[in-house]
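Assemble and predict.
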Amino acid sequence: MKLQISSQLAVFAVLELYARREEQLSVAEIASKYEVSPHHLAKVMNVLGRSGLVRSVRGAGGGYQFAGNARRTTLLDIVELFENAGPAARNDEELAERTGEGRALLQVMKEIDDIARSTLGSITIATMKRLVAQHEVPGKTASALGAGRG
Amino acid sequence: MGDFEGAKKRMHEDLPTSSAAQGPHRTGSPGLHIRPATRADLDQVIALDEEVTNIAKPDYWRSLLDRRPGPEQFFLVATEAGASAARILGFMLGEIRAWEFGSEPCGWVYTLSVREDARLHGIGQALFDAMSDEFRKAGVSKVRTMVGRDSRLHMLFFRALGMMAGPYIELEKEL
């Protein structure tokens, strides 16, 4: 399973805002850390804002703040704001169900989808933050989203 | 794994179903007490399990607590400290299994129950920490469990403790 760029940006932004939840961060600030397009990130932040996971603070020094429940919000909750994850995403069911081969292949693909969905749905923002801490390399900044620029 | 056999022997001596067999575990919460289960806990364990699972299994729990536990089996209960020590808030079962599915010895957590009115107070984590201590003392360095994909509560709990997917996938077939 590969997450769409918007989903990745959303996860990164939420994690950053949760890690620095006493602050208000601008789109430019978050985009700079992850070396991604501020334009693309701004659209993502709008969606996150409508979902209630983040709130925008207007005025001088304004920006975004984390507004969700980090122990209850999972990666799946974020990803599903931008794409269908798991069985709901299978648009090939009609074609697949015409033959035995198609139905067998569909069963295998659904197994993969179920596992992916379960994994995303079991990792909260708080859990993810602890996981991030295990992966952080001192002095190194994120730069993995080059494909998301522009 | 050199310490494993010695640890097994040591634990066998330590593990009658008596609360005096092992000392209580230190917990992060001063109001919480973790100790091995005893026969006197049976009625509360049966009732709590039925409350959580909606299935009464008195014979199962009686058989577990009536027999002397194996040297690699652990049945821990959490109670309040002090005057309310008799009231069980939760319990956890674990066991060290070796060489099944080609796996080196590792600890398995296979039951966890916490009273609904006592949740979100760190009882599950305290039980897990105590169980992990037992596994470490027995010479194993890995703990595993199995969680239903739809069991959101258990899945979130074990994930929050840092557990990740392991190298095995459970397979099954209708017979």
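Chain B touches chain A at residues 149-150, 152, 155-156, 159-160, 162, 165 (CB under 8 Å).
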